[in-house]
Every structure is written in structure tokens, then in C-alpha cells.
TrEMBL record:
Residues 1-51 form the MbtH-like domain. The lineage of its organism: Bacteria, Pseudomonadati, Pseudomonadota, Gammaproteobacteria, Pseudomonadales. One of its GO terms (biological process) is siderophore biosynthetic process. It comes from the Bacteria. This is MbtH-like protein. Pfam families: MbtH. One of its GO terms (cellular component) is cytosol.
């Protein structure tokens, strides 16, 4: 369920495990997440995340599997 107003703008954010999400611009950024410079409406941001985040495993797991 979406509780944000229809005209809400979002930022694409990433954490240290290289997991992506979107975050509404009117809320303070949660600890451990950083904006990556992509903003827009919900659909545009989700489309970007869908295109860039193709391996959903977290970075620490990928690193462990590579060893």
C-alpha cells in the first residue's frame, strides 16, 4: 500500500550491501543509505532500480561466494 501523495518525488538510494531502494524526498534519509543522484516520481525510480539491480544478493554474500 502506498501512503505517499501522488505527486511525491523519490530518490534512488543504496546501502553498503549494494541493495537499492527508493525514498521519498520529504523524509529524512535513514542511516546507512545514500542517494545516488537519481530522482523522479515513484514509477521512474522503480524502473531505474529494476534496470540497475539485477543481482539481488547482498554484496557481502557475493564477496564470500567469490572467495
Amino acid at each position: 500500500m502506498n501512503y505517499d501523495p501522488a505527486d511525491t518525488q523519490f530518490h534512488v538510494v543504496v546501502n553498503a550491501e549494494q541493495q537499492y531502494s527508493i525514498w521519498p524526498e520529504y523524509k529524512a534519509m535513514p542511516a546507512g543509505w545514500q542517494e545516488i543522484g537519481i530522482s523522479g516520481d515513484r514509477q521512474a525510480c522503480l524502473a531505474y532500480v529494476s534496470g540497475i539491480w539485477t543481482d539481488l544478493s547482498r554484496r557481502s554474500l557475493r564477496d564470500a561466494m567469490a572467495e
